[in-house]
Amino acid sequence: MSRALALRLEPYLYAAPSLLLIAAIMLVPLVTGLSYAFHDLILLDPLSGDFVGLDHFREMLDDDGFWTALRNTVVWTAVSVALQFGFGLILALLLDRPFPGRGLVQALVFLPWAVPGFLSGLTWAWLFNPVIGPLPHWLHGLGLLATPENILSDPHLALWGPIAANVWWGIPFFAITLLAALQSIPKDIYEAAAMDGAGPLLRFRRVTLPLLAPTIAITVMLRTVWVANFAELIVVMTKGGPADATQILSSYIFTLAFQRLDFGYASAVAAVLLVLLLAYAAAVMVLRHAMTERA
Amino acid sequence: MATITLSNLSKDYGGGPVLRGIDLEIREGEFVALMGPSGCGKSTLLRLIAGLEEPSGGEIRIDGRRVNEVAPKDRDLAMVFQSYALYPHMTVRENMSFALKQRRLPQAEITRAVEGAAAKLGLTNLLERKPKALSGGQRQRVAMGRAIVRNPKAFLFDEPLSNLDARLREQMRYEIRKLHRELGATSVYVTHDQVEAMTMADRIVALNDGAIQQVGAPQELYDQPANLFVAGFLGSPPMNFVDATLAPDGALVAEGQTLARVSPPAGLAAGTTLTLGLRPERLALTDPTKGSAVRVDVVETTGTGRVVHLALGPQRLKLFTMDPRPLAPGDVVGLVVPPGAPLLFDPVSGARLS
């Protein structure tokens, strides 16, 4: 091997081990998974395994379950993230000002985050159960429910059960990150704004929000992708039911793969979810880039 | 433009008073420096005037109106912060317009005010930049600009130059002073730097341990300091303090040598121990036979002259001289204390006696 060639190869050789590792642990499973989407792969059918091209994707177009799940995914993600963010921001603002016992309250507030998702799903399922849980009775008392029944068994309302659990569980994430961002804003900027004639509301709108914007953008994006993929609560609380009314794409994939054992079709749905999330992330990145360009 | 009156003002965060018994009248159009070492309460005093802190006792009046309970935004004062506290997400123009927008002034008027101030401060070409794209000196100017566009009742400065390098600091000192002359606005300027206080202020308020030590014109504080604190804080190199005894004939004797003669102040008995305050630049050198004999310890050249460290027995003195005579460490020289140079202080209370 000539010395010139060796020199030219040198950087690639240094990088090769990491690249191989990344390929092995990220690309190989991804490509394998994606390839299932183009095969007829049913776990209990030894005759399956043929290449079927785009058949699964055509099937999807006529699959009501898929479209319901897609709609639910949007509602589930948008409502969960919006409420998690809203309450998280309020909590962060409350915790940003000093009061006696703040350290303890901060620790308590962040507790839900430490609860395993499936455990919080179980707890919330019980809370919504009128036999042992108080929530249906409270909702009835407030006039939100005609009778104190289990909303998890009402196809029109069931999705709100996991959403409530998800909001409770996800608030700390926003509270922690937004509190950290809030605490990095120098206090004298607020003082300068106060001297400049801005009251508390205006200071929040003109100083706090713009300075939090980069953190908000990145956390909302992360959470959105995360929540869209987060099937645990739904699987535990409703199993996607009643009658698939609460399936989101990720729980639908789980059901297809591990209950109907149709790995091929499940992989095809997963591929669609992957593409949708990639498109979303790319859109947010472009938006963020445009924002920081301006900033 | 406004008068700011502080009466019996105090502040206590719960761990003892930070400020106590502050009585001060800042007159209309006056430039007052609040001067003292860190922790003396000068910044707290400024923040009380601004309304960023609440007084524990006493009263603040602006133009005769009590403002203790008035929010900062309604006091119509402008403040320049040590860190500049510019809004990082806004351009220079937006930073300077911020206060005017809160007042809902017409856009044309805002533009005129901002561009006028920018021209005055040499910021015209930087109006569309963000603070992070500016140098320290430019940021400082923007902070000034943000204050002057508002045409407030008074300006409050919280050590505005301490983050600048020496050369820039000197230039900004001059510019702030010039702006003050042009605008004629009441200004309160917090600084720990005695040179800033001396060069800029109409009057200096010397603070120590949360209490006012002396208020007066810079030269007055320099020549007639009320106590050892003020005497030692002003001047560079600082005033010499020598332990001396008052002889019956009015001679001030230190380490067995008569340094000077004074007509003894009334009520001072002979034999009293005093602290003698001697400004380094008022002392002179002569032959050892003619003055008090002292030994040269160290000689520092400053360019304009020399600072000579002298040993008078175990006591140390500094002397500033433009005398070109050759001096080497170890030389014995004569020290001359001209009449009128020594200030006499009570060594216990620190108060000036003469």
From TrEMBL, chain B:
Gene3D superfamilies tied to this protein: 2.40.50.100, Nucleic acid-binding proteins (2.40.50.140), P-loop containing nucleotide triphosphate hydrolases (3.40.50.300)
Alphabetized SUPFAM superfamilies for the sequence: MOP-like (SSF50331), P-loop containing nucleoside triphosphate hydrolases (SSF52540)
GO MF annotation: an example: ABC-type transporter activity
GO cellular component: a single term: ATP-binding cassette (ABC) transporter complex, substrate-binding subunit-containing
InterPro entries registered for this protein in UniProt: AAA+_ATPase, ABC_transporter-like_ATP-bd, ABC_transporter-like_CS, ABC_transpr_MalK-like, ABC_transpr_MalK/UgpC-like, Mo/tungstate-bd_C_term_dom, NA-bd_OB-fold, OB_MalK-like
Biological process according to GO: carbohydrate transport
Ranges that cross the membrane: none
Alphabetic keyword roster: ATP-binding, Nucleotide-binding, Transport
Domain ABC transporter: 4-234
Family: Belongs to the ABC transporter superfamily.
Protein name: Glycerol-3-phosphate ABC transporter ATP-binding protein
Originating species: Nitrospirillum viridazoti CBAmc
